[in-house]
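Team,

Forwarding the record for the chain on the shared tracking sheet. I've put the sequence and predicted structure together so nobody has to dig through attachments.
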Amino acid sequence: MNATRIAAETGKLMAFLIGIFGLFVNPWLILIAFFIYMGANEEEKIVMVENVLKRVKIFDIMSPNPLTVSPETKVGEILELMLTHKHLGYPVVENGKLVGIVTLKDVANASAETPVAEIMTKDVVTISPLSSAFEAFKLINERRIGRLPVVDDEYRVIGIVSRTDLMRTLEIIGIQEAFREVRKVAEPA
């Protein structure tokens, strides 16, 4: 992490110097410097997120025993669940095993009497409870999904982890680490 931080800071410094040089030589260099600076800044943030989330297991941050629905559940019932429980996606379970997921996007254009089996997403991206939170972060961002069902070895849903869970985890750990730093500085030598 130290090497990445140094590389990012060096990239930012180079971008600043290129930007100043661009003021006198070529205005296009200012635009290039801007993109270099933004890239270095984003890389630094990603490495910090990775460093924090790799230390956390999905089991520790997932919501256990999520509400699930069956393939026979009607779209109208799903909408009621969404209003009542404020979740926009539910794992679809049949005979104790995950068979799909249904989200607000799936139900948006269906009639209230349509069974979930007809509209659910069957190609579900899942994660193991022993995976790192960073693996979930990557999957959620790469696949552009809001939540991941957490499944055991027998493909039973034991939890769910959402983008919000990951962001809260980052926020809480960031505050914990800030408190640790303050205590270190405050402690007498």
